[in-house]
Amino acid sequence: MPTHPHLRLAGKPASAPRCRTTGCALRSSGELGYCSACEAVYHAARELREQLLARRGAQLHAAHRAMFDALSPAVRNRLLAHMAARTAQQGQPAHVFDEFGLEDFLAELNDLGLTALT
Ligand SMILES: [Zn+2]
Asked: What distance in angstroms lies between residue 42's CA and the mean position of ligand 1's atoms?
């Protein structure tokens, strides 16, 4: 086969994709685009976030027990999760009942066609 040193292949040969974490040079190995080590950290961080939000929800429930206990368990859990995420995002203490968060929640229920809270 003749060689043509002045020619080169068009395009880049396929290489293994890199992990999506900034600064990580390992190969991506999963659907999320992380290497296995970074994916483990990602899942641990998500779990920690869920646990922290659950704690905020429990603290909010304890601070306003009469109001939340009047709701059905499904609506109560959904509202607590919504309110916990909202107050956490805004940097408010866990026991704060954010009335604008309640308005968001009610609007979301309305969008879903749900009107009963109990
Ligand atoms: Zn990585």
From this structure: 10
